Q: What sequence folds into this?
């Protein structure tokens, strides 16, 4: 089996006639860590609930571990570890009592159950608080307990919704390191609004906006939506002649003027050093002095925002034509 999750043209319409998902198709390869990105209301939670079989799709097919997933797919869910974005627990139980209960629900024997409880409590930094009642836990501690609970059954698939939300810097780093350890060993669907976390641990990305899947691919493929690099130049002298010469000589570089500066967007095949060398030559030829050059590379956040902005603008154009 090469895919753990497969969505084929999945649509979900709620009774309120809200279209939560519209013709969404994607596949999660075995052993991959896939980031699910999107603003509130984009459809992320609906994707997760359908993937877990908690709700049914209005149309389309969903397979998990090569089998149809639905509300009655208990055996499939036994192979999944789930962390919600707002985990809730019995407040009168201690952390260790709760993990013992979770282990029993999965049918773990006493020896295996206790071994996993100890390992996981240490992994999430709750060993010293194992005997405390969960009702006294902070939000971050509850999230860490939820992470431990989601791993009690040693799942093949992890579905984590905002696992680093509310965590202090040390706990956040430990959680990301834990995810890095799973790379290639478990399949992970990770929903997060923290792009830095997605950037660090995910090898593929799904970007949703208003129920539509805008992007499905690697980070590098998403960043290819942006120019390779951006050069900003401060010049004096014959700037008009220089700008015209740049446009004529560097045909694969987009040139714009912004607040008295020249902004050059380089394509994916352009080499920054070679472009700078050409700029210096052109400045000399046109008697222009380059007073400064700033260079910025591509960022995941920039690519994500570009994708969302373009989709919003396309939606505006469609609406104005109707």
A:
């Amino acid at each position: 089996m090469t895919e753990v999750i497969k969505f084929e043209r999945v649509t979900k319409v709620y009774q309120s006639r809200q279209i939560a998902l519209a013709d969404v198709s994607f596949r999660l390869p075995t052993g991959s860590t896939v980031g699910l990105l999107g603003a509130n209301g984009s459809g992320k939670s609906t994707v997760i609930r359908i993937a877990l079989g908690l709700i049914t799709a209005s149309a389309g097919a969903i397979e998990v571990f090569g089998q149809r997933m639905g509300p009655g797919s208990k055996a499939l869910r036994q192979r999944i570890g789930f962390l919600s974005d707002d985990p809730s627990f019995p407040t009168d139980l201690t952390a260790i009592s709760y993990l013992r209960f979770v282990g029993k629900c999965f049918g773990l024997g006493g020896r295996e159950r206790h071994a996993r409880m100890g390992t996981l409590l240490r992994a999430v930094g709750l060993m010293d608080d194992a005997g405390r009642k969960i009702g006294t836990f902070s939000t971050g501690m509850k999230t860490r307990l939820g992470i431990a609970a989601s791993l009690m059954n040693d799942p093949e698939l992890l579905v984590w919704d905002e696992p680093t939300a509310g965590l202090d810097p040390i706990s956040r780093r430990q959680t990301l390191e834990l995810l890095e350890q799973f790379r290639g060993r478990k399949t992970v669907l990770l929903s997060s609004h923290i792009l830095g976390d997605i950037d660090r641990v995910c090898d593929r990305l799904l970007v949703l906006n208003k129920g539509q899947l805008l992007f499905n691919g690697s980070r590098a493929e998403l960043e290819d939506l942006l120019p390779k690099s951006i050069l900003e130049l401060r010049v004096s002298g014959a700037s008009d002649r220089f700008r015209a010469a740049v446009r004529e000589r560097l045909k694969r570089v987009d040139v714009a003027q912004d607040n008295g500066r020249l902004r050059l967007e380089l394509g994916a095949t352009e080499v920054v050093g070679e472009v700078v060398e050409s700029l210096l030559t052109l400045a000399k030829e046109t008697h222009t002095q380059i007073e400064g050059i700033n260079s910025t590379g591509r960022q995941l956040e920039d690519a994500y925002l570009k994708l969302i902005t373009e989709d919003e603008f396309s939606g505006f154009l469609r609406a104005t034509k109707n």
